[in-house]
Amino acid sequence: MTKGGMESVELFTTEGKGRGLKAQKEFLPGDVIFAEPAYAAVVFDSLTHVICHTCFKRQERLHRCGQCKFAHYCDRTCQRAAWLNHKNECSAIKRHGKAPTENIRLAARILWKLEREGSGLSEGCLVAIEELQNHVDSFGEEEKKELRADVESFLEFWPPHCQQFGMQLVSHVFGVISCNGFTLSDQRGLQAVGVGIFPNLCQANHDCWPNCTVVFNNGNHEAVRSMFHTQMRIELRALNKISPGDELTVSYVDFLSLSEERRQQLKKQYYFECTCEHCKKQLKDDLMLAVKAGESKPSADTVKEVVQLSKDTLEKINKARMEGQYHEVVKLCRDCLKKQEPVLGDTNIYLLRILSIASEVLSYLQMFEEAADYAKRMVDGYLKIYHPNNAQLGMAVMRAGVTHWHAGLIEAGHGLICKAYAILLITHGPSHPITKDLEVMRVQTEMELRMFQQNEFMYYKMREAALKNQKIQVMPEPSNENAPSLFHKKE
């Protein structure tokens, strides 16, 4: 069996859930169960000039296609690799006069591939594109209206000399994109930059507490002639020990919401009722709604009042962030935390959401000591709620570690960076850029920690001198987006 091949999984059908994937062999945490290249993928409309259209990496300078002036690439290697998929698109854009939206471009790429390869199973696919779920029958009026508009735009873009497909298949492809489009991220995994269709991944059913995770690997196009040359792909990785015959599950939504909220989101976006154990038994809901324990336990009315205040504050924070008013965001967070702290428990999701925003924005404003305090409390709460090998937990712990390092809290910073590294080794693997960055940080903080333990006074003197000579690393500007979710759903 080749590593990442489909021989290690089996397609099966269950009552009520439809198709799913089962393990054919044992897997340990961090094992790649399979890797899958995209059937078709496109960059988001808003990022077509800054993201490579082949490997989806963010680059400073990109080469532009000389023909259509629309597609952008890292270099000639990426441009050559893209030509098979871009050739028809290139001439269609020139004929049409402009590039259509990402949905139209993705549908066109899927149908050009069907024109080239014919219907039925593609190489390495367990399921044909025509057999994927489209959920068109479950669409509401607004979604049906959008579907009709997409089909009309597609027909205007689709060249008359290309194979003409029936309306049913075209509508089916748009339905597939709507509920099975997978979010592609940049090389750091921090920003959603595109959408792709991965037929095998589509077969993995949802569980709020899954045994697998999915990571997007941009591939290594630079090593053209070496054994390390790899194409863009997704990797399904094991989070726990998985036995032969176990169903392979992934989570379509972030776990950090109440079970009822997750169920509503899944019903609205993916058209199914979640019956996982965590939803049925409302596991962890008690932690996410925790209130201060002890003799002076707050009344139900007080809790309700503070929760409403938290929701209102989050709306105000979003508005202030959109306008770049970060000092206003900090003020809103501090005021809200003062009201929350005597009432809400350490794992309450409303408290954790405010702590997360406060630590991120304060880090950006270089107010590191206060940011580190909030980040530590946030991580302590997350560790009690999230699966121990959750990718979003790993990223949050990493950010907290970097914040502590910036604050000069070397012992806590190193400990958090080591913890994050252990999680991301499983969720992302040792060769992912973010894991490699973390390994560099781990080695650096370990060296600094040894120096600190040998002579604390000299450590601070040297650190002070180093920071004077070298501009302190500015934290990235806080993003208004959540971490990229697994499947891309057009809102």
From TrEMBL:
Q: Does the keyword S-adenosyl-L-methionine apply?
A: yes
Q: Which residues form the signal peptide?
A: none
- Write down the top EC class of this protein: transferase
Pfam families tied to this protein: SET, zf-MYND
Name a single GO biological process. methylation
Q: Please indicate if the UniProt record lists Transcription as a keyword.
A: no
Q: Which GO terms describe its molecular function?
A: histone H3K4 trimethyltransferase activity; zinc ion binding
Catalyzed chemical reaction(s):
L-lysyl(4)-[histone H3] + 3 S-adenosyl-L-methionine = N(6),N(6),N(6)-trimethyl-L-lysyl(4)-[histone H3] + 3 S-adenosyl-L-homocysteine + 3 H(+)
Full protein name:
[histone H3]-lysine(4) N-trimethyltransferase
The organism is Urocynchramus pylzowi
